[in-house]
């Protein structure tokens, strides 16, 4: 187990210390959502027990405290991804919400008939459907960077597709179903040489590796709090100031205005222009605790430890006959997808569940990936900092047992 301050990290996660069906829980569905450390759970209770109030509006003490805490998280997020300014950090509901915000506002401003939006073959549905919707509304076309059988993007094809019609490129940093780590820095460099902005989906990246928006020079970056040990219902959209200022508001309502008459509204400055209505105050404030948790361990340590787990799991899986890994890119992280000859992933998943092991089966919101590999779905395991080699051993033994039942 990952030892931190003389104690296994997992001791800080109460949800990991339960039994399901009388078996100790092995939680390998971290790409879907992570469990929460005590610090985050306690911060949520503390918030509702003390400074609970609406932000940015009240003259009273509690409202000022809550507003300050909310803005403290914005500063922490900015530092976490090395954003130049905290006002370039917009709070959203999550990755999906952030992508919809950009697809809608960017599309409204910059997409016209004949234009192209370029995504990749391994996008989560949340980085496909919002672009389909806006392309449909604006008469633009959605095009896809293809991948090879290993689940690696074809960079030559990317350059070929990147013609003058492309108005924006939107790609994932790490695939949630294949584990592929994409060469996003290179993608951004190539796109920027043609003055084309790039949105990065960092939902499977920020909890595993250091993401530096200035290093990458991405124009937009989105991720979710719940996949990085934080609460559900909060996400981040980072956008370069110049872009966020150029885009129109997404939703209208309270907080995003400076003044309103029935004739005309003057919009608020960044970041408030994009934060209409009462946000998820509790989740925004307690996301700060999750960031502290990650920072205290150190992303380099997390990355090193998780890489070991990942390699260990691949090695152990290689000894099981009939197991085929889907996604064999040279650079992978987070998730391992597999299928087994003669057994359906769902049936294996059900049996593993009864043995206390939480995995995910199906298309993982990446149906086009499954179509590409001509499979209905995979069985996916995905790791977090609290997982152990012993858990992988339990998983491997249980998988073997499930296969002897099924095959
Ligand atoms: N993109 C990727 C790569 C993801 O893994 C996920 C979550 N599975 C999402 C987007 C969507 O995130 P959320 O559901 O938190 O909006």
Automatic annotation (TrEMBL):
Coiled coil: none
BP term (GO), one: cysteine metabolic process
Domain of life of the native organism: Bacteria
GO molecular function: cysteine desulfurase activity; pyridoxal phosphate binding
Reported cofactor(s): pyridoxal 5'-phosphate
Reaction(s) the record says it catalyses: (sulfur carrier)-H + L-cysteine = (sulfur carrier)-SH + L-alanine
CDD domains tied to this protein: SufS_like
Keywords: Pyridoxal phosphate, Transferase
One Pfam family hit: Aminotran_5
EC number(s) recorded for this UniProt protein: 2.8.1.7
Enzyme class per UniProt: transferase
Residue span(s) of domain Aminotransferase class V: 26-395
Task performed by this protein: Catalyzes the removal of elemental sulfur and selenium atoms from L-cysteine, L-cystine, L-selenocysteine, and L-selenocystine to produce L-alanine.
Stored NCBIfam families: sufS
Family: Belongs to the class-V pyridoxal-phosphate-dependent aminotransferase family. Csd subfamily.
Identification of the protein by name: Cysteine desulfurase
């Amino acid at each position: 187990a990952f030892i931190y301050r003389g104690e296994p990290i997992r001791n800080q996660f109460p949800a990991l210390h339960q039994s399901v069906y009388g078996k100790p829980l092995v939680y390998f569905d971290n790409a879907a959502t992570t469990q929460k450390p005590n610090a985050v759970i306690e911060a949520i209770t503390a918030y509702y027990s003390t400074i609970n109030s609406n932000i940015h509006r009240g003259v009273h003490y509690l409202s000022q405290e809550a507003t300050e805490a909310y803005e403290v998280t914005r500063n922490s997020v900015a530092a976490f991804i090395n954003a130049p300014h905290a006002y370039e950090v917009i709070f959203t509901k999550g990755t999906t919400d952030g992508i919809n915000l950009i697809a809608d506002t960017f599309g409204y401003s910059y997409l016209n008939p004949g234009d192209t939006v370029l995504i990749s073959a391994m996008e989560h549905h949340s980085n496909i459907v919002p672009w389909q919707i806006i392309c449909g509304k604006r008469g633009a076309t959605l095009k896809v960077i293809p991948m090879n059988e290993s689940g690696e993007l074809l960079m030559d094809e990317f350059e070929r597709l990147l013609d003058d019609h492309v108005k924006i490129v939107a790609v994932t940093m790490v695939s949630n179903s294949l584990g592929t780590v994409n060469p996003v820095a290179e993608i951004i460099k190539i796109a920027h040489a043609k003055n084309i902005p790039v949105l990065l989906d960092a939902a499977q990246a920020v909890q595993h590796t250091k993401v530096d928006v200035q290093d990458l020079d991405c124009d937009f970056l989105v991720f979710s709090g719940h996949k990085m040990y934080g609460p559900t219902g909060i996400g981040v959209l980072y956008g370069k100031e110049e872009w966020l200022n150029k885009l129109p508001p997404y939703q209208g309502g309270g907080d995003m205005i400076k003044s309103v008459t029935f004739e005309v509204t003057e919009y608020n400055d960044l970041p408030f222009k994009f934060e209409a209505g009462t946000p998820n105050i509790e989740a925004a404030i307690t996301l700060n605790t999750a960031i502290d948790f990650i920072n205290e361990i150190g992303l380099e340590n997390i990355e090193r430890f998780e890489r070991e787990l990942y390699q260990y799991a691949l090695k152990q899986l290689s000894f099981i006959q009939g197991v085929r890994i889907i996604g064999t890119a040279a650079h992978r992280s987070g998730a391992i997808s597999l299928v087994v000859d003669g057994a359906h992933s769902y049936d294996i998943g059900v049996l593993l569940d009864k043995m206390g092991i939480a995995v995910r089966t199906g298309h993982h919101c990446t149906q086009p990936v499954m179509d590409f590999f001509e499979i209905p779905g995979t069985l996916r395991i995905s790791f977090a900092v609290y997982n152990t080699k012993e858990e992988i051993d339990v998983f491997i033994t249980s998988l073997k047992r499930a296969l002897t039942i099924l095959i």
